[in-house]
Amino acid sequence: MILVDNGKRAGARVAVLGTFDGVHKGHQELLKVGKKYATEHNILLRAVSFDRHPLEVLRSASAPKQLTDIPEKIRLMEKYGVDELQLLTFTRELADMEPESFLGMLREMMDLRAVVAGWNYSFGKGGRGDADLLKQDGIKYGYDVMIVQPVRTNAGDIISSTLIREKLREGNQHEAEEMLGHSWREQ
Q1: Which of 72, 111, 138, 165 is at a distance of 20 to 30 A from 171, taking alpha carbons?
Q2: Cα separation of 59 and 113, whole Å?
Q3: Number of domains the chain contains
Q4: Are 116 and 17 in contact (CB under 8 A)?
Q5: Model confidence over 93-113: pLDDT tens digits?
Q6: Could you read off the pLDDT of 6-32 as tens digits, one per residue?
Q7: What is the model's pTM?
Q8: Is residue 112 part of a domain?
Q9: Burial of 130: CB neighbours in 10 Å, binned 0-12, 13-18, 19+
Q10: 104 within some domain
Q11: Does residue 156 lie in a domain region?
């Protein structure tokens, strides 16, 4: 897997968007959908994430402890079929970018053929960008958009990094690892 230089424009790509903290089963479903599309169209799969959790910049006092550090994130992304990982530097300027400008930046970085995001993915200033805006942008600029519905536990809970952190705080590592789909070690 290649760690992408943010300054270089790439050719045809499937971009999977997310923070990917923990690279849990929900994230794995996004990557699976993206990999299927990439394989069918003979193009590369790029995960687009951040170099830190966005809350470290937005509200540092309430930023959660990361489930995975960058080397572990890279290892897991490779394990789940990602060809390239692009870690955007999360700054106040990036957080304040209008959602349409954020999508324009992605289109400038690569020839987007498809974008995959989770049902609750938000982006741009105030988190105003959402699945509907992604779909509209895809129609306007000619790329496919796939919105992946939540992955749930056997008990029906939506798998999320927040829920996994909660299980770890409770001392329930087994349940956390079940949602992760891989073993966990403290960072």
Answers
A1: 72
A2: 34
A3: 1
A4: yes
A5: 999 999 999 999 999 999 999
A6: 667 899 999 999 999 999 999 999 999
A7: 0.93
A8: yes
A9: middle
A10: yes
A11: no
